[in-house]
Amino acid sequence: xxxxxxxxxxxxxxxxxxxxxxxxxxxxxxxxxxxxxxxxxxxxxxxxxxxxxxxxxxxxxxxxxxxxxxxxxxxxxxxxxxxxxxxxxxxxxxxxxxxxxxxxxxxxxxxxxxxxxxxxxxxxxxxxxxxxxxxxxxxxxxxxxxxxxxxxxxxxxxxxxxxxxxxxxxxxxxxxxxxxxxxxxx
Length: 186
Prior knowledge:
The structure is a single chain. This protein is an alpha+beta fold. It has helices spanning 74-93, 133-143; strands at 5-14, 35-44. A two-stranded antiparallel ribbon has the order 1-2. The longest helix is centred in the middle third of the chain and has 20 residues, at 74-93.
C-alpha cells in the first residue's frame, strides 16, 4: 500500500477581529484582514490508495484533457471549455443538469507577468470558502431552473480548478476534506 506523502505547511487563517473582514481580490492594499498563520499537515492525495470523491470529501482530482489551446483566449473558453466542464461535471456528479457560469477565472502567481491583468487574478492566501449556502441558492435562482416548472430536491455548487502549468506551482491549491469542516456560521 502506498503511503500518502504529507508535508507541514503554513496556512493563513483569519484571526478573531472586531471589524468585519474584507478581501479585495484585485487590490490587496484595501484588505481588512488579520491573518493567523498555522502549521498544518498537508496530504498529497494524488498518491492515496483511496482517492477523495465529491460525495465523501467534497472534492475530487481527475485527469482531463482539454481541447483549449490558449486559456487566455475568451473565444476558446466560451466555445470549448464551458462545454467540457459541463460534460465533466455531469459525469462526475451524476446530476441530471449542470449549469456552468459563463466566465472562467484565471489565477496567476505573483511573479507571473499575467498577475493582476484580469479581474480576480490574484490568489487568496488564506483559508476561505468561495460560496455559502445563501449564495448557492442565489446561483440556483439566477440559473432559472426554478422557473422551468421543475422541482429541485437538491443542488450543489462546485468549483472546477485546472493547473495550467507544470508542477511545482508557486501557489498550490489546498482544499479541506468536507468532513473536517463544521457547518456552523455559513
